[in-house]
Write a structure and sequence with these properties.
The structure is a homodimer. By secondary structure, the first copy, chain A, is an alpha+beta fold. Chain A folds into two domains: about 100 residues, OB fold (Dihydrolipoamide Acetyltransferase, E2P) (Beta Barrel); about 290 residues, Bira Bifunctional Protein, Domain 2 (BirA Bifunctional Protein, domain 2), CATH 3.30.930.10. Helices cover about 35% and strands about 25% of the residues of chain A. Chain A has 15 helices and 16 strands. Chain A has an eight-stranded mixed β-sheet with strand order 6-10-11-16-15-14-13-12, sandwiched between helices. A five-stranded mixed beta barrel of chain A has the order 1-2-3-5-4. A three-stranded antiparallel β-sheet of chain A has the order 7-9-8, with no helix packed on it. In chain A, a hairpin with a 7-residue loop joins strand 2 and strand 3. The interface between A and B is large, with 107 and 107 residues. Strand 8 of chain A pairs antiparallel with strand 8 of chain B. Chains A, B: It is found in: Cytoplasm.
Chain lengths: ~475, ~475
């Protein structure tokens, strides 16, 4: 007989005379003559309640069942007379699949700290909170693909292993197939040539440059894949391995880019509120009481758009200015405290800051007519700060070449990138969104370690 | 004015008095008094034909337009009197966005070899063949997500950077954040501890063990991400970086696993035939004339299921047996020639071989009651050989521990994996499918380098 997943059982339209449910026991309560079992199989947040009458045989099995055990229940799906659920299972057959010794099973029926749960990342998805988190993570991934596909974008798998330190977006991990002995014996200058790829190789920090090649062929594309930073900053916002979404649009300027970013953020929030109501409800109730307000506020308002120059002026003139740890100064990146002031205090909604000084932005961003700024944009949201960062790309070959020279890079390393401006170049734009930051916005969770199944951070590679 | 993508223009229901089309010129033909332009913007295989009457102004612009140039065309969408297309654009405004010098632009209007196109992987998606390929690749990715989501599976991002050589599936790349000097000075035994993660770290060869933890929490999950092999085999079937799909199902046995694999393969083929008819048509016409027959044959037949033992016997007794390069012998892996004989000659359809000798399979596969074989399965398809490989997983703690010991591994390294069998273990199963192999099956393309945007192979890290 085929098992019915708990989600489907709870959503049944009618009673079912024979049903098979399997899952893990969350609680067991014994009464005189019968027992209650709460069963969860991960298909949804809610458990299904099972009532089994005691027979000598069943009592023997029930003795071995405790929180965490896996069971198979055969019975009837009937309307529940109790509160809190529409349906329950009257179990007539109970099978213990796998016990969980209450002396050693770490997930007992009580609240565990996030820190503790990180130390058992292989078991934490069996809790309500992390089950909900990773169902939302899955649905958010799907929503991203659906959003872009519906708009005619193509998904491109840009390479993870790369030979170029493209945009200097951060410290890179190096990869090698040489063994220790070779690494210590071969001269530094010769190691690349002797290594697997015949040159030095690293883990990508961004798929953008590759994605641009595809936007300039297929029109509209996006990447969605893992990216890496070898930065030893042990903060709640940084991980060495995280996922990023990078759309790239041909025939588009900075305004199109801002429109796409805003539309995407709203679409994703809306999709998750509609498809993951129960799971989001858990976070709104137990993690961040303001969550629903923040999300609805984001959905209901047009995002503010302000130039970097105006933003700096506003920050310098605001009442809080003297209390900032860092004085907001033209020519410097905005600090998180500045970003939060703009979104949380001043505009009270998401803000897109655009047209940044060219000196503080990478070579590929398009130089504006003022020759001082580039067509960059950062989309800031309350609590998180920067959620999306992007730009119109420099499509003019001569300007791009001089920008590469300015930054001291070698334009020969970018021959293929420059080719795209040499042959049929077109205005285009794109951005990157940190997937985990979007998840943090959606759930109110403040530590990136709690939105990644098995997070990778300095000195931490368990599981 | 907003541009209309070529796909939408070609699918128009009515003529459009004002339309803006942008794209790259595939060909230009000048006639007396007017010119034809074939424009492609990557949204679909087909070009849109543009006719522009010559005016002195337009002629000046047309002079600079050649194959590969990017243009913006304003005009009217009208029914085409010519053959081969329903609609064409009567252009009244022509703008050159970016020229492409015919002396240097490598993609002229002629057939280029796959080898040559690999050397310009940044431009090859501008050809019909590779445009089609990477649109199919995108749609196939979507189909995978849709298939699993519709069946209630959750998508899990398993880690790329790993500390364990889990299943010994292949040679691994090592990753490090130490610089050359440190690597040459620090003793081998101390390098791990001094490195970013405080231990040796590698690129993953499979997300399975992590995915199992999630199946044993959320019920049904799958991974879809990049995996890596540091194997220096320079063959048309191997790449150092490729994408893999790995579903993992709780409360499932080997039969459920075979059913899922067969259902998935058929769903994906069907989805692509329905959504990418034009692009697949190109491959059926120019790459593999038997493509449609192969795909339809796969769709229309129940896959053969045969034990490894029966398959070996069959191979030993078949007429071709003496012509095999390798004698089919019990206890050895099937060779590609054997797999192809089974699918192409004997059964003339896909074949699932199951129950392999335990000695030639990894520790995590479930030992059968005969104690000789494990509940493994390989799904073989014509032309490709192994497309899917999987197994029921060993859910019995004691058996798993002794299998780990058998293979000489250290069970302490797998404490978390064993925990899942210690606490509420359940029968479960899963498999891996090479994404690129599926693409090769779908398109008839025989070199893996031609189904990956920027392939990574030994001594090759360009782009």
């Amino acid at each position: 007989m085929k098992r019915t997943c708990v989600k489907d059982a709870l959503n049944a339209e009618n009673s079912v005379s024979e049903i098979l449910v399997k899952g893990w026991v969350r609680t067991k309560r014994d009464n005189k003559g019968f027992s209650f079992l709460e069963i969860n199989d991960g298909s949804c947040l809610n458990n299904i309640q099972v009532i089994v009458d005691h027979t000598p045989e069943i009592e023997k099995i029930l003795e071995k069942i405790s929180t965490g055990a896996s069971v198979s229940i055969f019975g009837e799906l009937v309307e529940s007379p109790g509160k809190g659920q529409k349906w329950e299972v009257r179990g007539t057959g109970v099978e213990l699949l796998g016990a969980a010794d209450p002396e050693t099973f770490p997930l007992q029926k009580k609240r565990h700290s996030d820190e503790f749960l990180r130390s058992i990342a292989h078991l934490r998805p069996r809790t309500n909170k992390f089950g909900a988190m990773f169902r939302i993570r899955s649905e958010l991934s799907y929503a991203i693909h659906k959003f872009f596909r519906d708009k005619g974008f193509f998904y491109v798998h840009t390479p993870i292993i790369t030979g170029s330190d493209c945009e200097g977006a951060g410290e890179m991990f190096r990869i090698t197939s040489l063994d220790h002995e070779s690494l210590s014996k071969i001269k530094k200058e010769e190691q690349g040539a002797r290594d697997f790829f015949g040159q030095e190789s690293h883990l990508t920090v961004s798929g953008q440059l590759s994605a641009e090649m595809y936007a300039l062929s297929l029109g509209q594309v996006y990447t969605f894949g893992p990216t890496f930073r070898a930065e030893k900053s042990n903060t709640p916002r940084h991980a060495a391995e995280f996922w990023m979404i990078e759309p790239e649009i041909a025939f588009a300027d900075l305004n199109d880019n801002m429109d796409l970013g805003e539309e995407m953020v709203k679409y994703l929030i809306n999709h998750i509120l509609e498809t993951c109501a129960d799971d989001i409800g858990l976070f709104a109730k137990f993690v961040d009481k303001t969550l629903m307000d923040t999300l609805k506020n984001t959905l209901d308002n047009k995002f503010e758009r302000i130039t970097y120059t105006d933003a700096v002026n506003l920050l310098q003139r605001c009442k809080k200015a003297k209390k900032f740890e860092y004085w907001p100064e033209y020519g410097h990146d905005l600090q998180t405290e500045h970003e939060r002031y703009l979104t949380e205090k001043h505009f009270k909604k998401p803000v897109i800051v655009y047209d940044y000084p060219r000196e503080i932005k990478p070579f590929y961003m398009r130089v504006n007519d003022d020759d001082k700024t580039v067509a960059a944009m950062d989309l800031l949201v309350p609590r998180i700060g920067e959620l999306v960062g992007g730009s119109q790309r420099e499509e003019r070959l001569d300007v791009l070449e001089s920008r590469i020279a300015e930054t001291g890079m070698n334009s020969e390393d970018y021959w293929w990138y420059l080719d795209s401006r040499r042959f049929g170049t077109v205005p285009h734009a794109g951005f990157g969104m940190g997937f985990e930051r979007m998840l943090m916005l959606l759930t109110g969770v403040t530590n990136i370690r709690d939105v990644i199944p098995f997070p990778r951070t300095p000195k931490n590679l368990e599981f």
